[in-house]
Amino acid sequence: MIRKCGRLAMLHAPLNVTEFSVVNPVFDVAARAPDLRDTWGDTRAKVHAITAARGVPGDGVVVIGDTGLEREWADAGRLAGFLPSTSVFDI
């Protein structure tokens, strides 16, 4: 079980970060996700910028997602790890 954690949503276009934050207040932060055009280094930089803005070191972040792309964010950003959403949420 994960406890005492912040919740960050990384969104792809066309989702609007500001609108998402208003509609989904359970998330502490919403940010633009790296996209397929980004290099590995660009992806790492974007992930680090998002976590650093919250004052959280990368090794304190776990990505919960559904795709290989999200798993790559965890690898590129040298984050603590990746968990499939089905192992965390009752979906």
Question: What distinguishing features does this structure have?
Answer:
3 helices; 91 residues; two-stranded parallel sheet; alpha/beta; 33% helix; two-stranded parallel ribbon
- Structural class given helices, strands, pairing? alpha/beta
The succession of helices and strands, N to C, reads EHEHEHE
Distance between the termini: 16 Å
Q: Which bin fits the share of residues in helices?
A: 25-40%
Number of strands: 4
Taking pLDDT < 50 over at least 5 consecutive residues as the criterion, the unreliable ranges are none
Tally of DSSP helical segments: 3
> Which whole number gives the mean pLDDT?
88
How would a crystallographer describe the biggest sheet?
2 strands, parallel
**Which outline best applies?**
globular
C-alpha-based Rg, rounded: 13 Å
How many structural units, i.e. domains? 1
In spatial order, strands of the major sheet run: 1-2
Structure description:
By secondary structure, the chain is α/β, with parallel strands linked by helices. The protein has one domain (8-87). 33% of the residues lie in helices and 18% in strands. It has helices at residues 17-23, 40-53, 68-76, and strands at residues 8-11, 29-32, 62-65, 81-84. The protein has a two-stranded parallel sheet. It has a two-stranded parallel ribbon with strand order 3-4.
